[in-house]
Amino acid sequence: MQKNMKITVIIPDELVKEAQNLSKAKTITDTLIIALNSYVSFQKLKEMGEGVKKNPLKFEYSAQEIRELNRTI
Question: Quick count: other Cβ atoms within 10 Å of Cβ 35?
Fold first, then answer.
């Protein structure tokens, strides 16, 4: 079961309004949920990108070799 947190925050009105307009959310709560989910997703993608930088993907076959393999299947 998901727990919910009730909080009081001070956020500039214009920032909330802009986020609500961009997200097309009906409520401020929905706006904040969308914004926080987007932020978390972005940070996870950033971390994954850093991981790929540290350990780049290595391909064993060239594009031409893969095409040839696909044609034989």
Answer: 17
